[in-house]
Amino acid sequence: MTQATAKRGQATKEKIERASIALFLEKGVNGTSVRDIAEACGISEGTLYRHFHSKDAMIREIFTEHYVSFSEKLAEATAAVAGLEAQVERMVGLFCGFYDEDPILFGFLLMVQHRQLERLPSNLPNAIDVIHELMVKDGRVHEPMLATASMIGILVRNAMFVRHSRLEGPLSRYVPQLSRQIMGAVTA
Known about the structure:
Largest sheet: none
GO molecular function, one term: transcription cis-regulatory region binding
Number of helices: 9
Protein name: Transcriptional regulator, TetR family
CATH architecture of the largest domain: Orthogonal Bundle
Number of domains: 2
CATH topology of the largest domain: Tetracycline Repressor, domain 2
Organism: Tistlia consotensis USBA 355
Pfam families: TetR_N (PF00440)
DNA-binding region: 33-52
Low-confidence stretches: none
């Protein structure tokens, strides 16, 4: 395979990924067929199957790639600073920036997370574990998993408010306030 062929193949795969994510958000996973995705990309179903063995495999691969990447970034961001307040602010900034940069991908990850998190191999980075580990280390946090859930809940709900125009975006403008709200919730 030539380098040009490999680049075209990667470009096609990325095109499939973006089209499928948008269709999944618009029509739902069950309401989106492989044919819908192929038509949106202007390719044949056979071409799509050269990149992904099935729709389920596509969802799992896209979720795993982006979720693990985000989890790794969370771990790196928090390792660079000391103290729960600074770590929470870093995580909030990363989360908000991710939403602002790609709300469609963000929405897809939220939409499929319940089924896909169950399938995520335990040896891969997981954002929930990254947050939980920080909560466990701080003596002010009495219920680390409850604190983890509270932090995720605050972030996701505010992102959805921006998505549905109930809160003016970008979400990143609220990093200081969200960080304070989370610290209040997790140390209560």
